[in-house]
């Protein structure tokens, strides 16, 4: 029996796509998420190696920031003195991701 080819009649249907019920629970909308990133603006103070930057916030604090993937893809250049928009996690306020160059 081990050498016999199987016929398709006894196969179970794909459970993931059966009846269009791929997910068990509905996903939360992004607006309801408590851990949503905080958007802030700052000024680049120091350019570091590996596309990392020290950015000063309006309150005087400094954060370590890196460039987002879209900015790397488009070869957006950042220099000291540029104003930037960043996303920061509410859990770690010492690091951020630069998402937009204001000028």
UniProtKB/TrEMBL annotation:
Segments forming domain S1-like: 26-103
Subcellular location: Cytoplasm
CDD domains per record: S1_IF1
GO terms for MF: translation initiation factor activity
Keyword field: Cytoplasm, Initiation factor, Protein biosynthesis, RNA-binding, rRNA-binding
Region (Disordered): 1-37
Segments of skewed composition (Basic and acidic residues): 28-37
Compositional bias annotation for Basic residues: 1-15
Record-linked SUPFAM superfamilies: Nucleic acid-binding proteins
PROSITE patterns: S1_IF1_TYPE (PS50832)
Assembly: Component of the 30S ribosomal translation pre-initiation complex which assembles on the 30S ribosome in the order IF-2 and IF-3, IF-1 and N-formylmethionyl-tRNA(fMet); mRNA recruitment can occur at any time during PIC assembly.
Role summary: One of the essential components for the initiation of protein synthesis. Stabilizes the binding of IF-2 and IF-3 on the 30S subunit to which N-formylmethionyl-tRNA(fMet) subsequently binds. Helps modulate mRNA selection, yielding the 30S pre-initiation complex (PIC). Upon addition of the 50S ribosomal subunit IF-1, IF-2 and IF-3 are released leaving the mature 70S translation initiation complex.
Protein family (similarity comment): Belongs to the IF-1 family.
Record protein name field: Translation initiation factor IF-1
The organism of origin for this protein: Rubritalea tangerina
């Amino acid at each position: 029996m081990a050498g016999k080819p199987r016929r398709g009649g006894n196969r179970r249907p794909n459970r993931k796509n059966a009846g269009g019920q791929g997910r068990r629970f509905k996903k939360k909308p992004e607006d309801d998420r408590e851990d949503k990133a905080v958007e802030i603006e700052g000024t680049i103070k120091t350019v570091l190696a590996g596309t990392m930057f020290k950015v000063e916030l309006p309150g005087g604090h400094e954060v370590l920031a890196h460039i987002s993937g879209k900015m790397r893809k488009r070869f957006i250049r950042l220099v000291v003195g540029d104003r930037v928009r960043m996303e920061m996690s509410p859990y770690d306020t010492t690091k951020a991701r630069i998402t937009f160059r204001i000028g």
